[in-house]
Specification:
Layout (H helix, E strand, L loop, with lengths): L6 E4 L5 H12 L3 E5 L4 H15 L3 E4 L6 H15 L4 E4 L14 H29 L2 E6 L12 H20 L5 E8 L5 H14 L3 H10 L10 H11 L11 E4 L7
Parallel strand pairs: 1-2, 1-4, 2-3, 4-5, 5-6, 6-7
Helix pairs in contact: 1-8, 3-4, 4-5, 6-7
């Protein structure tokens, strides 16, 4: 398949899952609007590198996902400079872990803003253009935690369940407008951040990285194998294909059997 001529905006795409998805879409020919936090020089190197590797137009927006007006401005900028937002991937997210009684109110508000409200604001901003063109793909990165819960993750689990619900509403509203809206629900994904956590834990406990990985995975998943950002990118590409035209309003698990249990 080819996404040549399409424009993809991927939030939280300067590393991890978001970058994996952005790379997968660029490899199919899509132009990109990247977004995320990080060192300005490193982000510029990443942007220029992607543009050179895939011979695509690649822009970057530093929009803060907790600020609705910045999200709307980012979508407008992509439409003005790249011509459209055909594919919107709402991926940006943060995490904080504590029991409900100890959970800081400010952290709750921040996680709901970035992990859930940003999905609403991005969708609201991108839909008019998609409807006008008669084609669009919205892919929300939820989580296994959008379908099941774990303790100490009240805000994250609530937000991701909310993302799945919002996905269904949006899908129904635009079902006959040439637009699909779906949620990808990853289990454990081997991102640089997770790799570092595992390496640190292995060192701390004097165990091998493989032992720590196996324990980490088997606590939740039937399959003791991580998903990769590349695999999630592959699923995102499939959702943009003609084969997925009637897949909409669906949470798609890519979780090693986590929620099957």
């Amino acid at each position: 398949m080819s996404l040549k001529g399409k424009v993809a905006l991927v939030t939280g795409s300067t590393s991890g899952i978001g970058l994996g998805i952005a790379r997968a879409l660029a490899a199919q020919g899509a132009d990109l609007m990247l977004n995320g936090f990080g060192d300005a020089a490193a982000i510029e190197k990443l942007r220029a590198g992607l543009a050179a590797e895939f011979a695509n137009r690649v822009l970057y927006s530093g929009a803060d996902m907790s600020k609705p007006e910045q999200i709307a401005a980012m979508v407008a900028e992509a439409e003005a400079k790249l011509g459209a937002v055909d594919i919107l991937v709402n991926n940006a997210g943060i995490q904080f872990v504590a029991d409900i009684v100890d959970f800081p109110t400010a952290k709750w508000d921040q996680i709901i803003a970035i992990n859930l409200s940003a999905v609403f604001h991005g969708t609201k901003a991108a839909l008019p253009g998609m409807k006008k063109r008669g084609w669009g793909r919205i892919i929300n990165i939820a989580s296994a935690h959008g379908l099941v819960a774990s303790p100490q993750k009240a805000a994250y689990v609530a937000a991701k369940h909310g993302v799945v619900g919002l996905t269904k509403v949006a899908a129904i509203e635009v079902a006959n407008a040439g637009i699909t809206v779906n949620a990808i629900c990853p289990g454990w994904v081997l991102t640089p951040l997770v790799e570092k956590q595992i390496a640190d834990k292995a060192k701390q406990e004097g165990r091998s990285v493989d032992q720590v990985k196996a324990d980490f995975l088997s606590e939740k998943q039937a399959m003791t194998r991580f998903s990769t950002p590349e695999e999630i990118g592959g699923l995102a590409v499939f959702l943009c294909s003609d084969s997925a035209q009637t897949i909409t309003g669906t949470p798609l698990s890519i979780d090693g059997g986590w929620v099957a249990q």
